Amino acid sequence: MQVTSAEFLKSAFKEDDWPRDVKPEIAFLGRSNVGKSSLMNSLLGVRGLARTSSTPGRTQALNFFLINNAFRFVDLPGYGYARAPRAVKAQWSAAAEEYLAKREPLVLSIHVVDSRHEPSKQDLQLHEWLLHHHRPHLIVATKSDKLSNNELRKNIDRIAHALEADQVVIFSATEKRGRDKVWSAIEKSLKN
Ligand code: GTP
Ligand code: MG
Question: Is 115 in a helix, a strand, or coil?
Answer without folding.
Answer: coil
